[in-house]
Amino acid sequence: MALITLAFWTFWSSVAFIAYTYFGFPLLLALRAAIYRHPEPVAGHLPPLTVIIAAHNEAPVIEGKLANTLAMDYPADRLQIVVASDGSNDGTDDLVRGFGSPAVTLLSLPRGGKNAALNAAVATVTDPERILLFTDADTTLEPAAAQNLAAHFVDPQVGGVGGNFLYKGGKGDGERAYWSFDRWLKTRQSRGGSLTSATGQIYALRRRLFDTCPQGVADDFYISTGVLAHGKRLAFEPAARGFGPVAAAQREFGRKVRVASAGLRGVRLRRELLNPFRFGFYALQLLTHKVLRRVVLIPLLLILAASPVLWIDGTGWWKWFYGLATLAQAGAHLAALAAYILRDTSLSRLKPLSLPFYFDMVNIAVLIGLMNMIRGATTFDRWDTQRSSGS
After folding, report:
1. Has residue 71 got a pLDDT over 90?
2. Among 55, 115, 207, 380, which residue's CB has the most CB atoms within a 10 Å radius?
3. Where are the beta strands (DSSP E) in the chain?
4. In a shared domain, residues 121 and 53
5. Whole-angstrom distance, CA of residue 217 vs CA of residue 198
6. Cα separations (Å) of 90 from 86, 95, 109, 110?
């Protein structure tokens, strides 16, 4: 009887945890967004802008990236580009030097990691009122992206703006579905307050709000949340769009472990933002989005363990409810396993397989990342170019 009672409370407390994380909190965001409104951006506000690109062995894409950046609809006399080459040995530096634009500056650095490269690049920008636009070498920006980001800075309460990153190509359904949900959340977060954090492929902030980024943390999280730490707002601009290659999910596990480890360490270093007396609703938002969502595998495993106990020892129609819950979980995890086994075939891209696979992969990677953070592992200080293989 004690086992059934324990299983009952384990099951329903875990269900409540997951329901709040994935459904309850988004509902709170939607309600808050319906109540609060912030000043609209003002088109035509074009402050001086420096584009920061950290690069390691980006020879295949760096010339296209520079051409794309210079082609944006932004006044040439207000636009600079700084490429911080982090120990590149594939000819990236030579390509940047030979690009032939006075707006482009190369920092050829020894291998020190992406965060060190970003710090070095920002240190070259001495004007505290200048706007910094961070973007990746393999991200293609729409012509109006910089203008749409800059328009928000007419509001002195806006310290940073996250852009809208989208995948190009026809693969990666699991990751694409996650990002679609994430964009929905970001839109509500911004309408009602601030983004939790920006996406590294495209975001901007005021130079004076930049905090030196330590090693071992997710650079986009740590840098963009500095805006909140300085008492300013982090907005979201869906019309500032950047496009990048779809990650091959089956090959992304190691990267996601590193990202999860660095992200959780970033939350620990920014833990003052979890104080609701100073940061209000944002503290709950940060806790839910960056902590609870990242440990959701734990209640999922608890449900998986409790369901068969309640099914076997249950009575009445509840017995069949728990039986259905057990079979549904088993089916989802088996689908994820099938996607892994079939990872080199077109069958793995079927949504009934790819979505469970992506969900399980992300949650397992986050659990490993949590363990890395707890034991102080910092093997993610180095970075390598991540490319989709196209398979």
Report:
1. yes
2. 55
3. 49-55, 79-86, 104-109, 131-135, 140-141, 158-168, 202-206, 233-245
4. yes
5. 14
6. 11, 10, 14, 14
Residues 230 and 131 in one domain: yes
Same domain, 64 and 26: no
Answer for the pair 219, 269: CB distance below 8 angstroms, yes or no.
no
Q: What is the pTM of this model?
A: 0.86
206 within some domain: yes
- Token pair, residue 279, equals 């940061």
The residues that bridge with 160 in the sheet, in sequence order, are: 205, 234
Distance in angstroms (rounded) separating the CA atoms of residues 80 and 74: 10
Domain interval for residue 301: 1-35+266-383
With 80 as the cut, is the pLDDT of residue 295 above it? Answer: yes
Q: Are residues 134 and 187 in the same domain?
A: yes
Closest by CA to 368, choosing from 218, 292, 264, is 264
What single DSSP character describes residue 142?
P
Longest dimension (CA), the chain: 77
**Count of alpha carbons within 13 Å of 49, Cβ hemisphere only?**
29
Q: Of all helices (H) and strands (E), which one includes residue 364?
A: helix 351-375
Residue where a domain stops, chosen among 184, 215, 247: 247
State yes or no: pLDDT of 314 exceeds 80: no
358 falls in which pLDDT band (50, 70, 90)? confident
**Number of helical (H) and strand (E) elements in the chain, helices listed first:** 14, 8
Structure tokens at 105: 């500056």
- Residue at which a domain ends, from 247, 275, 302: 247
One domain for residues 237 and 175: yes
- H helices within 47-172, ranges in order? 62-70, 92-97, 114-123, 145-150
Compute the half-sphere exposure of residue 338: CA atoms within 13 Å on the CB side of its CA.
17
- Nearest-CA neighbor of 329 among 299, 364, 304? 304
